[in-house]
Amino acid sequence: MRSHNTARVLGLLRAAGAAGVSRLELAERTGLTPQAVSKITARLRDEGLAAGAGRGVPTGGKPRTLLRLVPDAAHAVGLHLDRDELTAVLLDLAGATVAARTRPLDLGEGPGAVLAAAVEEVAALRGDGTLTGVGIAMPGPLDHTAGVPHRVTGFPAWDGFPLRDTARRALAERLGQDVPVALDKDTNAAALALALRADDDREAGAGDREAADDDREAADGVPGGRGGAPGGGGGSQDGRGGTPEGRGGAPDRLGAAPDDRGGPADGRGGSPDRPGGAPGRPGGTSGRVGVAPDGPGVTPGRVGVAPDGPGVTPDRPGAAPGGRPSAPPADGAASFAYLHVGTGLGAGLVLAGVLHRGARTGAGEFGHQTVQLDGAACGCGGRGCLEALCLAAVARGDLDEAARVLGAGAANLAGLLDVDRVLLGGRVVAAAPGPFLRGVGAALADRARRAGEPPVPVALATGSPHLVAEGAAQLVLAPLFGR
After folding, report:
1. Do 475 and 384 share a structural domain?
2. 10 lies in a domain?
3. Number of domains in the chain
4. In a domain? residue 315
5. Does residue 291 register a pLDDT over 60?
């Protein structure tokens, strides 16, 4: 595991994209000493993870050497073990999907057969490249911390099987190297991918606004945008006083800063769909929260939400009736529920910007809330479960009824957790999004009317068709960047 400060620097390099970022800006944004930044970046260059990106546009004084991340220096594999299908993706360090493979799978064949197929997919995707880790996502319930599935509905052979550790041993034998492995629920992986992507979008927007501000300030004749005339008393080319580098020393001496210990986790950028982030403008640290520290291999980062959908006025996220925003603030921590309808029914929860797994990492078993006492039997052993009623309606071809059932559960969730929005995904929703958007939206609107509140927006979880597998890869990739 890389050090916290190395992860912060890597994160900023990743956020800068191909445009790169200077060591001075890395020191400013991390609060590390220039010496610490130089040591970290030298090590990253030696390892092939960072490279030169030319020189920055001078604002007076010596142009700064820029550094960038090398996205193809290493990769991560994400595996989605669905009940009837295996999807494997290869992500580069920027979070871009390099390759994807799908094959039929029968989860009921048991851990041995499924794991053998999964290992072969990893070997096929890896090729000769460096592999940083493998993330596995599958239906719950499971123990993320221990890496052990529990009673996956309909598949008792998986109960208590040490999947994470067994997969690690099998991969080491097949690949000839020890590869870190992480295990989580499919819905948590999807929620993580959505949240990281939205976070990248927010950062890109912030970077564009900063660049526009700098352009306006430059047009006004204020180098560096912070005042101070060149060479004037207390002023400089950067407006910080002293020399063109703005730290009171020579151009190659970046000046004093806090030591190599402090500072919040920083550095984001890129996602499966946004590999570069905001060119040359890695973001700051305000409002950055992330995956809760409830399992190994995941460190705090920033997460967020997807674009507006039905239930809000498109592109108008302003205040809704009653003074409650109809969309979360762009720069703040947000909450959402991702509802997945596929071969099963589940939820991934991001609450106040944190991926919520619960005290025993079992949160999100959305499909097994009872919505009809003494209702139809469910494969989990209960009766009247949301999953049983919804999927039975899907099997009959009655998508309006399936959406009505899903909407009842979504309204319960909105009332319980007060989320900013609800996102829908999974193969059933993807095949016929209209009925589900209408049905869930109507249920949320009805609840809002009764409560005297604005409705919680509902939208499709847009993006890659391999959302769960990409989120699985991020389980091992994102922590490298302090996310």
Report:
1. no
2. yes
3. 2
4. no
5. no
Q: Tell me, yes or no, whether 394 and 419 share the same domain.
A: yes
Overall average pLDDT of the 276-303 stretch: 37
478 and 433 in a common domain = no
Does residue 164 have a pLDDT over 50?
yes
Least confident of 54-58, 300-304, 367-371: 300-304
Q: 351 and 266, same structural domain?
A: no
pLDDT, residue 208, reads 55
What are the helix (H) ranges across 127-244? 163-175, 186-219
329 with 183, same domain: the answer is no
Look at residue 332 and tell me if it is in a domain. Answer: yes
Q: Within this chain, do residues 477 and 435 fall inside the same structural domain, yes or no?
A: no
Q: According to the model, what pLDDT value does residue 213 have?
A: 56
Residues 16 and 106 in one domain: yes
Please report the pLDDT score of residue 279 as a whole number.
35
Q: Which domain holds residue 397?
A: 321-461
Give the ranges where 220-338 is alpha helix by DSSP (H).
none
**pLDDT at residue 451 in the model:** 93
CATH number of the domain where residue 337 is located: 3.30.420.40
Same domain? 210 vs 69: yes
- Assign 220 a pLDDT band (cuts: 50, 70, 90): low
pLDDT digits (tens, 9 = 90+) for 405-449: 999 999 999 999 999 999 999 999 999 999 999 999 999 999 999
- Residue 339 included in any domain: yes
For residues 97 and 236, which has the higher predicted lDDT (pLDDT)?
97
